[in-house]
Amino acid sequence: MQSKTYSPKEIAAFRGLLQLAAGGNCFSNIKVQDIATAAGIGKGTLYEYFSSKEDILSCTMLYTLQQFADWMEQQITRDVSLHAVLARFLDALEQERFLPFRALPVLGTFLSYEQRAQLGMRNREQAQAIIDRMRGYERHVFANSRKNGEIDSALSDRFCEYAILSALGGYVSMLEKRVCCREEISLDSCKDMAQQLIFRSLRP
Amino acid sequence: MQSKTYSPKEIAAFRGLLQLAAGGNCFSNIKVQDIATAAGIGKGTLYEYFSSKEDILSCTMLYTLQQFADWMEQQITRDVSLHAVLARFLDALEQERFLPFRALPVLGTFLSYEQRAQLGMRNREQAQAIIDRMRGYERHVFANSRKNGEIDSALSDRFCEYAILSALGGYVSMLEKRVCCREEISLDSCKDMAQQLIFRSLRP
Amino acid sequence: MQSKTYSPKEIAAFRGLLQLAAGGNCFSNIKVQDIATAAGIGKGTLYEYFSSKEDILSCTMLYTLQQFADWMEQQITRDVSLHAVLARFLDALEQERFLPFRALPVLGTFLSYEQRAQLGMRNREQAQAIIDRMRGYERHVFANSRKNGEIDSALSDRFCEYAILSALGGYVSMLEKRVCCREEISLDSCKDMAQQLIFRSLRP
Amino acid sequence: MQSKTYSPKEIAAFRGLLQLAAGGNCFSNIKVQDIATAAGIGKGTLYEYFSSKEDILSCTMLYTLQQFADWMEQQITRDVSLHAVLARFLDALEQERFLPFRALPVLGTFLSYEQRAQLGMRNREQAQAIIDRMRGYERHVFANSRKNGEIDSALSDRFCEYAILSALGGYVSMLEKRVCCREEISLDSCKDMAQQLIFRSLRP
DNA sequence: TATGAATGAGGGTTCATTCAT
DNA sequence: GATGAATGAACCCTCATTCAT
User: Fold this and answer.
1) What CATH number is associated with residue B193?
2) Which residue segment(s) compose the domain that A74 sits in?
3) pTM of the model
């Protein structure tokens, strides 16, 4: 499976935008100049590679999905367990080079329905292809986990996916709350809760 | 417990904004003129009641929290079960007059960290008072549910809250996806999954 | 000579506006609400007596001119000297009830040419009548002062008027500078300089 | 003495604003769009060079002061007379390139006390430096004029300054009156009166 | 190719004026 | 008559986009 490649400037733009998103900025509040500055390039240069501000976002999300799919691909072994994948994923989230995984939901969340719909339009097929790829890996992990008793056999793939996404969504919310509401929650207890929610809800 | 009352114009503004938010618009993309139009009043009139666009949002969120707390208060009986509360809540979400409950998370989600922090500043004490009130009801329900076997006694209140909020967050995401990605998910199956996620993860 | 009379509300409006002007506010920066508040009446009430904000100004200036003319009329005696008139005038400026005389130039100065031209349009004849009246008194004083040696007989009335208005204009500027530049000038030395400028320039 | 230099766009903005001010517009009545149009640049461009409308004014006044100080510097010779300086200055006022000298007092006059105080804040030190420079030239001229008998030795510098500023202020008023009241005064007679007022009041 | 100076459409906000009470 | 709640035109300012260099 060959992933699309990007020029250094494009990647700089992606990482610049993701950096800003990770800081908790709504997309509307991120200025094109901010992205250019964060990327270390000129504002005009962005328009050599992208057709609009929205396009930068669209491509960034595609790039991020692709990075994620690539990462998942490497994690897949014959009899991988849900437990192992999750642990590795949550650990990965703390590393700088996995910024995209962390920032993507933030970016996505800060979009209105209409913006999301428009984004889908642009790179629809490519995005769909990547999502299908990830769904494949996902199915593989779910199947293995049903065999090893981590997941109740009666549960559908859709429910498993829903449980995991909800737990991760809640995890991100908790982290944000730490940022803006200054409640005293440790990162580790957040991770524990996320994992517990998934395992408890999927166990037989 | 006496809740703050609002003038008709203020409530019109609240509902106008919530209407727009329920439509999936990021706050930055909602124009003051839009709010005025949705509220059926003049743009200038908004500034007779609110000091700024941000203030409209801040007050709307407070109003919504208050509405929610009032509603919860009515649901609480001596030995209420988690099951009953959740069922009633999910049903309520489908009614027009419960628009606020549905739209609030959307509004909140579409804010940047900084915006959220600033909002907290304005009506901090009032918001905190309402949140404390709701935490009280919550604790009551959790206690009852531990007694009647719905919730594992070993689980902390914090984890229970996290599980419920994650499930509801995922539920809202799913509903949104129905809107923008047009996947074929029925409303009922969404509700089922949300309830299942909660019950499966909290059961002993 | 019968002066026009005004209702209490009108006079309240005049004095309200003059009060604000004496505070050094440009007319554009004075809001209708400010005038209403300063006058102790409702905003809507102003529009019962005046057709517009500009009209309030126009009438206020006319009222002030008239007050001034009335005051001058009382000062005129058969062989009044320039010295006596000036001294009395400068003293009067310090009293509260002579606020109009002090505030008028401020109001006038803060108008653009166009605004001034439009003002002139409204009450043109009345204003002209009052100005003519004052010119009459002025001529009388100048004539007397030429006789008693205060004014060089060779100087025209126009030059005398110009000298006095310039001196008073400079006097007001100096007072203002005391307000905003905080230079250490005493009120008395300001008055001295204004009188000196007039007497030195008009003396034979 | 090195004066600050400005970019062409800045100078265009200065001259645009001065042009409008020379037309007798109160600063509050001059719109940013007007300045942009008068300067021959886009509205947005102004905000690349100035932080706000007030900033444009502040910088314009500073620029004008500086231009004036530069001009004065060139006029100063060893034994310059007040008569010569004044004559040259009044002549200069009639030339297009001396627009700033003519427009500055108009701009300044049309500000409220508060606006003036705020302006002072921004470029306080630079403005003070220029004013000090001009005071220096002024003192030089006054000293010479006392020696050559134009100015009464008993008169203080402050009084001399006050006399000149008052006369010029009255001169500008007269010119304005020509504009808006259409009295039949020739430019030359205005100049004559201004000079006479100064010489008569300062002579021994 | 890469840039950032220049732009103007569009947003939040103010405030003179109206009109129902 | 007296009021102030309601209004929308018009302001200042922002920022995505263009284009000459």
Assistant:
1) 1.10.357.10
2) 59-202
3) 0.88
